[in-house]
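Format notes (please read before filing issues)

Several people have asked whether sequences and structure tokens are stored in separate files. They are not. Every record keeps both together, in the order shown below: the sequence lines, then the token lines. Line labels are part of the format and must not be stripped during preprocessing.
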Amino acid sequence: MRALLVALMLAACAAPARAPTAEAFAPLIGCWRGVFANVPDVYDERCFERLGAHVADTHAVRPTTYSGETTYHDDDAGGIIFAYAASDGGRSNGVLRAEGARFVIAAHTHIGGDGTLYRLRGVWTLETPDRLVMASEREEGGVWRPYMRITYTRTPSPG
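Then the structure lines:
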């Protein structure tokens, strides 16, 4: 009986299971406002929220009606997978890895709302605790070309 009690006490004191997604995204939790490179009148409002070991990322491109939501989850190998759904019906799934203050999004296929397929990849860099740069590339004819660059600054969370 004493051995069982000791085993139960040790189990209760054990470190919680690692949550690579929640740990990696911790510096991003909160809200951000991003400015698109070369498009000064369009901006992206984005908020990251922790959901247990997972993270949800919602965004809205203003002054348009386009928005989307991404969920990030641990995969079985200790990495991070994502699922994105856009207001126009577009969607994508993929993997990313956290490398310190960088998030590297592997090449993946995005299906646009009209059914068009795009090959995308990207790198997000947290330059300071309050400055995040998201840069993506699109594959065209077998060549990767700059696609989108958004520079975010942290903002107060809504409500």
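For reference, the curators noted about this record: DSSP finds two helices and ten strands in the chain. Residues 2-13 form the longest helix (12 residues).
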